[in-house]
Amino acid sequence: MKTIMRNEILDEKTTTQLVNQLQPTLTDLIALGLITKQAHWNVRGSGFRSIHLHLDEIYAAIQEDVDTVAERISTLNVSPDGQADYVTKNTILTSIPSGFLKDQDVVELMVDRVSQACHGIRDRMAKVEDPDTVTADMLHQVLAGLEKHLWMLRSSLA
């Protein structure tokens, strides 16, 4: 765990508790963004265009969420870690296969990865509700956006 500097917002115990939930969320969001771009570049098939464009939308939303979560960690006076080696070692998400992928396979893979990310955030949200409603509200917004994309992905499955 990183050294927590003096924080005028919350006490050290609460800050540690929050960062212990926010850092894994940040890590998973960064990993999900990378997976999304990999799928975006490699989708093939009759549904290419709509899936390709939707993956771009998902990626853009994830990048905003990454920044929001990282900035919340920084607001708590802790340094967020988004470096590639840290993300690779600490994400709960699994990679997707390399190479070109059939459109429906991409959708299934993305449903699985977005679902994993959503479950991780839901599990962590329960641990921040009581100590900090600001952080909880932020995670609610992140989760709501991801769940909307999950619904759209599921709806496009044949």
Shape: elongated
Helix percent band = over 70%
- Full CATH superfamily name: Ferritin, core subunit, four-helix bundle
Reported for the largest beta sheet, the result is: 2 strands, parallel
Give me the oligomer status.
single chain
> Per CATH, what is the topology?
Ferritin
CATH class term: Mainly Alpha
Distance between the termini: 44 Å
CATH architecture: Up-down Bundle
Judged by helices, strands and strand pairing, the structural class is mainly alpha
Number of helices: 5
Instruction: Please trace the helix and strand order, writing H or E for each element.
Output: HEHHEHH
Q: Percent of residues in beta strands?
A: under 5%
How many beta strands in the DSSP annotation? Answer: 2
Explain the overall architecture:
By secondary structure, the chain is an all-alpha fold. The chain has one domain (12-155): Ferritin (Up-down Bundle), CATH 1.20.1260. It contains five helices and two strands. It has helices spanning 12-42, 48-75, 84-90, 103-125, 133-155, and strands spanning 43-44, 101-102. Strands 1-2 form a two-stranded parallel ribbon. The longest helix is centred in the first third of the chain and has 31 residues, at 12-42. The chain is elongated.
Search tags:
mainly alpha; Ferritin; two-stranded parallel ribbon
Write the layout of secondary structure elements.
Elements: H1 12-42, E1 43-44, H2 48-75, H3 84-90, E2 101-102, H4 103-125, H5 133-155
Parallel strand pairs: 1-2
Short description:
The chain is mainly alpha-helical and 158 residues long. It has one domain: Ferritin, core subunit, four-helix bundle (Ferritin). The protein is built from five helices and two strands; from the N terminus they run H-E-H-H-E-H-H.
